[in-house]
Amino acid sequence: MSETTNATNAQNGAVKNGAAQKSDVVIDVKNLRKSFGGNEVLKGINCQVHAGEVISIIGPSGAGKSTFLRCLNGLDTPSSGSIVVLGDDIADPKTNIDKTREHIGMVFQHFNLFPNMTVAENITLAPTLIKKVPADKARARALELLRMVGLEEKADANPESLSGGQKQRVAIARSLAMDPQIMLFDEATSALDPEMVGDVLQVIRDLADKGMTMLLVTHEMAFAREVSTRVIFTDAGVIEEEGTPEQVFGNPQSPRLRSFLSKVL
Ligand SMILES: Nc1ncnc2c1ncn2[C@@H]1O[C@H](COP(=O)(O)OP(=O)(O)OP(=O)(O)O)[C@@H](O)[C@H]1O
Ligand SMILES: [Mg+2]
Protein backbone atom coordinates (compact mmCIF):
# COMPACT_ATOMS: atom_id res chain seq x y z
CA MET A 1 0.00 0.00 0.00
CA SER A 2 1.33 3.44 -0.84
CA GLU A 3 1.82 6.16 1.75
CA THR A 4 -1.00 8.17 0.16
CA THR A 5 -3.43 5.26 0.29
CA ASN A 6 -2.58 4.67 3.90
CA ALA A 7 -2.98 8.31 4.75
CA THR A 8 -6.38 8.15 3.08
CA ASN A 9 -7.23 5.14 5.21
CA ALA A 10 -6.50 7.20 8.32
CA GLN A 11 -8.76 9.92 6.94
CA ASN A 12 -11.71 7.65 6.26
CA GLY A 13 -11.52 5.57 9.37
CA ALA A 14 -10.55 2.30 7.68
CA VAL A 15 -7.95 1.59 10.33
CA LYS A 16 -10.32 1.68 13.27
CA ASN A 17 -11.35 -1.37 15.30
CA GLY A 18 -8.09 -3.22 15.31
CA ALA A 19 -7.62 -3.33 11.56
CA ALA A 20 -4.53 -1.13 11.45
CA GLN A 21 -1.72 -2.50 9.31
CA LYS A 22 1.92 -1.69 10.00
CA SER A 23 2.12 1.01 7.35
CA ASP A 24 -1.19 2.71 8.15
CA VAL A 25 -1.12 6.28 9.36
CA VAL A 26 -2.99 6.20 12.67
CA ILE A 27 -2.23 9.77 13.74
CA ASP A 28 -1.83 12.62 11.28
CA VAL A 29 -1.05 16.01 12.81
CA LYS A 30 -0.95 19.04 10.55
CA ASN A 31 0.24 22.48 11.57
CA LEU A 32 -0.89 22.07 15.16
CA ARG A 33 -0.80 25.25 17.19
CA LYS A 34 -1.75 25.74 20.79
CA SER A 35 -1.69 28.90 22.84
CA PHE A 36 -2.48 29.48 26.48
CA GLY A 37 -3.51 33.13 26.56
CA GLY A 38 -0.76 34.99 24.73
CA ASN A 39 1.73 32.14 25.19
CA GLU A 40 2.08 30.02 22.03
CA VAL A 41 3.26 26.65 23.31
CA LEU A 42 2.96 24.58 20.10
CA LYS A 43 4.05 26.48 17.02
CA GLY A 44 3.05 24.39 14.05
CA ILE A 45 3.66 20.70 14.71
CA ASN A 46 3.51 18.29 11.78
CA CYS A 47 3.74 14.61 12.57
CA GLN A 48 2.52 11.32 11.12
CA VAL A 49 2.46 8.19 13.24
CA HIS A 50 2.22 4.77 11.61
CA ALA A 51 0.75 1.70 13.28
CA GLY A 52 3.38 -0.11 15.33
CA GLU A 53 5.71 2.85 15.69
CA VAL A 54 7.22 3.55 19.10
CA ILE A 55 8.05 7.23 19.24
CA SER A 56 9.93 8.86 22.07
CA ILE A 57 9.45 12.57 22.50
CA ILE A 58 12.35 14.26 24.24
CA GLY A 59 13.18 17.87 24.93
CA PRO A 60 13.68 20.44 27.66
CA SER A 61 11.10 21.34 30.29
CA GLY A 62 8.44 23.65 28.87
CA ALA A 63 9.04 22.51 25.27
CA GLY A 64 5.38 21.53 24.92
CA LYS A 65 5.72 17.75 25.14
CA SER A 66 2.84 17.20 27.55
CA THR A 67 0.67 19.72 25.71
CA PHE A 68 1.27 17.82 22.48
CA LEU A 69 0.25 14.47 24.02
CA ARG A 70 -2.76 16.10 25.68
CA CYS A 71 -3.87 17.50 22.32
CA LEU A 72 -3.63 14.00 20.81
CA ASN A 73 -6.37 12.67 23.06
CA GLY A 74 -8.41 15.80 23.37
CA LEU A 75 -7.40 16.82 26.90
CA ASP A 76 -6.16 20.11 25.44
CA THR A 77 -7.98 21.79 22.57
CA PRO A 78 -5.74 22.97 19.71
CA SER A 79 -5.85 26.65 18.77
CA SER A 80 -5.52 25.67 15.09
CA GLY A 81 -4.45 22.83 12.84
CA SER A 82 -5.79 19.32 12.46
CA ILE A 83 -5.24 16.09 14.36
CA VAL A 84 -6.66 13.07 12.59
CA VAL A 85 -6.68 10.06 14.91
CA LEU A 86 -7.89 6.79 13.40
CA GLY A 87 -9.89 8.73 10.84
CA ASP A 88 -11.44 11.39 13.03
CA ASP A 89 -10.25 14.99 13.20
CA ILE A 90 -10.32 15.52 16.94
CA ALA A 91 -9.48 19.21 16.47
CA ASP A 92 -12.93 19.55 14.90
CA PRO A 93 -15.48 20.44 17.61
CA LYS A 94 -18.07 18.28 15.78
CA THR A 95 -16.05 15.11 16.43
CA ASN A 96 -17.20 12.91 19.31
CA ILE A 97 -13.94 12.92 21.23
CA ASP A 98 -15.14 10.34 23.75
CA LYS A 99 -15.43 7.74 20.98
CA THR A 100 -11.92 8.46 19.70
CA ARG A 101 -10.54 8.44 23.23
CA GLU A 102 -11.65 4.83 23.65
CA HIS A 103 -8.92 3.92 21.17
CA ILE A 104 -6.18 5.93 22.90
CA GLY A 105 -4.87 4.99 26.32
CA MET A 106 -2.91 7.53 28.30
CA VAL A 107 -0.68 6.99 31.32
CA PHE A 108 0.56 9.95 33.33
CA GLN A 109 3.29 10.54 35.85
CA HIS A 110 0.74 10.21 38.64
CA PHE A 111 -1.38 7.12 38.62
CA ASN A 112 -4.76 8.39 39.87
CA LEU A 113 -6.11 4.98 40.79
CA PHE A 114 -9.47 5.10 42.55
CA PRO A 115 -8.61 4.46 46.22
CA ASN A 116 -12.06 3.16 47.17
CA MET A 117 -11.92 0.26 44.70
CA THR A 118 -9.75 -2.83 44.49
CA VAL A 119 -7.07 -3.13 41.85
CA ALA A 120 -9.31 -5.35 39.69
CA GLU A 121 -12.26 -2.98 40.08
CA ASN A 122 -10.09 -0.10 38.91
CA ILE A 123 -9.36 -2.09 35.76
CA THR A 124 -12.88 -3.34 35.05
CA LEU A 125 -14.63 -0.01 35.66
CA ALA A 126 -14.31 1.55 32.20
CA PRO A 127 -14.91 -1.62 30.15
CA THR A 128 -18.07 -2.47 32.10
CA LEU A 129 -19.36 1.09 32.22
CA ILE A 130 -18.44 2.36 28.76
CA LYS A 131 -18.13 -0.77 26.64
CA LYS A 132 -20.80 -2.73 28.58
CA VAL A 133 -18.49 -5.73 28.90
CA PRO A 134 -20.14 -8.32 31.23
CA ALA A 135 -18.60 -8.32 34.72
CA ASP A 136 -17.16 -11.86 34.54
CA LYS A 137 -15.49 -11.21 31.18
CA ALA A 138 -14.10 -7.88 32.38
CA ARG A 139 -12.71 -9.58 35.48
CA ALA A 140 -11.06 -12.33 33.44
CA ARG A 141 -9.47 -9.73 31.19
CA ALA A 142 -8.32 -7.72 34.21
CA LEU A 143 -6.59 -10.82 35.62
CA GLU A 144 -4.95 -11.46 32.26
CA LEU A 145 -3.67 -7.87 32.14
CA LEU A 146 -2.48 -8.04 35.74
CA ARG A 147 -0.56 -11.21 34.85
CA MET A 148 0.99 -9.32 31.96
CA VAL A 149 2.24 -6.55 34.24
CA GLY A 150 3.35 -9.06 36.88
CA LEU A 151 0.69 -8.28 39.49
CA GLU A 152 -1.90 -11.02 39.26
CA GLU A 153 -1.76 -11.64 43.02
CA LYS A 154 -2.78 -8.01 43.66
CA ALA A 155 -6.19 -8.24 41.98
CA ASP A 156 -8.16 -7.85 45.18
CA ALA A 157 -5.73 -5.55 46.96
CA ASN A 158 -6.43 -1.96 47.79
CA PRO A 159 -4.39 0.40 45.57
CA GLU A 160 -3.09 2.19 48.68
CA SER A 161 -1.25 -0.99 49.67
CA LEU A 162 0.83 -0.96 46.47
CA SER A 163 4.21 0.60 45.82
CA GLY A 164 4.51 3.43 43.31
CA GLY A 165 5.82 1.15 40.61
CA GLN A 166 3.04 -1.37 41.23
CA LYS A 167 0.43 1.41 41.07
CA GLN A 168 1.84 2.58 37.78
CA ARG A 169 1.68 -0.95 36.36
CA VAL A 170 -1.96 -1.16 37.45
CA ALA A 171 -2.57 2.18 35.74
CA ILE A 172 -1.10 0.76 32.54
CA ALA A 173 -3.27 -2.37 32.86
CA ARG A 174 -6.30 -0.15 33.42
CA SER A 175 -5.57 1.73 30.20
CA LEU A 176 -5.04 -1.50 28.28
CA ALA A 177 -8.38 -2.87 29.48
CA MET A 178 -10.11 -0.66 26.92
CA ASP A 179 -8.08 -2.37 24.17
CA PRO A 180 -6.62 0.88 22.86
CA GLN A 181 -4.88 1.00 19.51
CA ILE A 182 -2.53 3.73 20.64
CA MET A 183 -0.89 4.31 24.02
CA LEU A 184 0.46 7.65 25.20
CA PHE A 185 2.86 7.79 28.13
CA ASP A 186 3.76 11.10 29.74
CA GLU A 187 6.80 10.58 31.94
CA ALA A 188 5.31 7.38 33.30
CA THR A 189 8.39 6.67 35.41
CA SER A 190 9.44 10.15 36.60
CA ALA A 191 7.66 10.00 39.93
CA LEU A 192 9.00 6.55 40.82
CA ASP A 193 11.81 5.51 43.09
CA PRO A 194 14.74 4.37 40.93
CA GLU A 195 14.32 0.71 41.85
CA MET A 196 10.70 0.78 40.60
CA VAL A 197 11.51 2.21 37.19
CA GLY A 198 12.78 -1.00 35.62
CA ASP A 199 9.56 -2.98 36.10
CA VAL A 200 7.45 -0.25 34.51
CA LEU A 201 9.86 0.13 31.60
CA GLN A 202 9.69 -3.65 31.12
CA VAL A 203 5.92 -3.44 30.71
CA ILE A 204 6.33 -0.70 28.09
CA ARG A 205 9.04 -2.75 26.37
CA ASP A 206 6.69 -5.78 26.26
CA LEU A 207 4.00 -3.62 24.67
CA ALA A 208 6.48 -2.40 22.08
CA ASP A 209 7.42 -6.00 21.28
CA LYS A 210 3.74 -6.81 20.76
CA GLY A 211 3.49 -4.04 18.18
CA MET A 212 1.52 -1.48 20.19
CA THR A 213 1.66 2.00 18.67
CA MET A 214 3.09 4.25 21.35
CA LEU A 215 4.21 7.81 21.97
CA LEU A 216 6.36 8.23 25.04
CA VAL A 217 7.45 11.46 26.63
CA THR A 218 10.44 10.34 28.61
CA HIS A 219 13.57 11.48 30.35
CA GLU A 220 14.93 7.93 30.27
CA MET A 221 17.32 8.46 27.37
CA ALA A 222 18.85 4.98 27.41
CA PHE A 223 15.38 3.48 27.30
CA ALA A 224 14.28 5.84 24.51
CA ARG A 225 17.31 4.81 22.51
CA GLU A 226 16.64 1.13 23.04
CA VAL A 227 12.88 0.91 22.55
CA SER A 228 11.99 3.60 20.00
CA THR A 229 11.61 3.27 16.29
CA ARG A 230 11.79 7.07 16.07
CA VAL A 231 12.83 9.86 18.37
CA ILE A 232 11.39 13.37 18.19
CA PHE A 233 13.26 16.25 19.80
CA THR A 234 11.02 19.20 20.63
CA ASP A 235 12.13 22.58 21.80
CA ALA A 236 10.13 25.77 22.29
CA GLY A 237 7.02 24.41 20.59
CA VAL A 238 8.56 23.02 17.43
CA ILE A 239 9.95 19.67 16.30
CA GLU A 240 13.56 20.68 16.12
CA GLU A 241 14.90 17.33 14.91
CA GLU A 242 13.71 13.75 14.48
CA GLY A 243 15.08 10.48 13.29
CA THR A 244 16.02 6.99 14.30
CA PRO A 245 17.54 6.62 17.78
CA GLU A 246 20.92 6.11 16.09
CA GLN A 247 20.57 9.41 14.24
CA VAL A 248 19.21 11.48 17.10
CA PHE A 249 21.50 10.17 19.82
CA GLY A 250 24.47 9.12 17.70
CA ASN A 251 24.66 11.95 15.17
CA PRO A 252 22.59 14.93 16.32
CA GLN A 253 22.55 17.84 13.87
CA SER A 254 20.81 20.74 15.56
CA PRO A 255 22.91 22.74 18.05
CA ARG A 256 19.91 22.81 20.39
CA LEU A 257 19.67 19.00 20.34
CA ARG A 258 23.42 18.70 20.87
CA SER A 259 23.25 21.04 23.83
CA PHE A 260 20.23 19.17 25.27
CA LEU A 261 21.95 15.80 24.94
CA SER A 262 25.14 17.12 26.52
CA LYS A 263 23.07 17.91 29.62
CA VAL A 264 21.04 14.71 29.87
CA LEU A 265 23.38 11.96 28.67
N1 LIG B 1 -3.12 24.65 31.25
C1 LIG B 1 -2.14 25.54 31.01
N2 LIG B 1 -2.34 26.86 31.16
C2 LIG B 1 -1.36 27.76 30.90
N3 LIG B 1 -0.14 27.42 30.46
C3 LIG B 1 0.12 26.12 30.29
C4 LIG B 1 -0.85 25.11 30.55
N4 LIG B 1 -0.30 23.90 30.29
C5 LIG B 1 0.96 24.14 29.89
N5 LIG B 1 1.22 25.46 29.88
C6 LIG B 1 2.49 26.09 29.49
O1 LIG B 1 2.89 25.54 28.27
C7 LIG B 1 4.29 25.37 28.21
C8 LIG B 1 4.59 23.93 27.81
O2 LIG B 1 4.17 23.09 28.87
P1 LIG B 1 4.25 21.52 28.78
O3 LIG B 1 3.70 21.01 30.06
O4 LIG B 1 3.61 21.04 27.53
O5 LIG B 1 5.82 21.30 28.69
P2 LIG B 1 6.67 19.95 28.79
O6 LIG B 1 7.55 19.91 27.59
O7 LIG B 1 5.77 18.81 29.03
O8 LIG B 1 7.58 20.24 30.08
P3 LIG B 1 8.07 19.23 31.25
O9 LIG B 1 9.26 18.47 30.69
O10 LIG B 1 8.48 20.14 32.35
O11 LIG B 1 6.92 18.34 31.62
C9 LIG B 1 4.83 25.79 29.55
O12 LIG B 1 5.32 27.09 29.43
C10 LIG B 1 3.62 25.75 30.44
O13 LIG B 1 3.72 26.69 31.48
MG1 LIG C 1 5.47 17.50 30.64
Automatic annotation (TrEMBL):
Keywords: ATP-binding, Nucleotide-binding, Transport
Catalytic activity: a polar amino acid(out) + ATP + H2O = a polar amino acid(in) + ADP + phosphate + H(+)
EC numbers for this chain: 7.4.2.1
InterPro entries: AAA+_ATPase, ABC_ATPase_HisP-typ, ABC_transporter-like_ATP-bd, ABC_transporter-like_CS, MetN_ABC_transporter-like, P-loop_NTPase
Entry's Gene Ontology molecular function annotations: ATP binding; ATP hydrolysis activity; ATPase-coupled polar amino acid-transporter activity
SUPFAM superfamilies listed in its UniProt record: P-loop containing nucleoside triphosphate hydrolases
Domain ABC transporter positions: 27-261
PANTHER family: AMINO ACID IMPORT ATP-BINDING PROTEIN (PTHR43166), ARGININE TRANSPORT ATP-BINDING PROTEIN ARTM (PTHR43166:SF37)
Name this protein carries in UniProt: ABC-type polar-amino-acid transporter
Species this protein is from: Bifidobacterium callimiconis
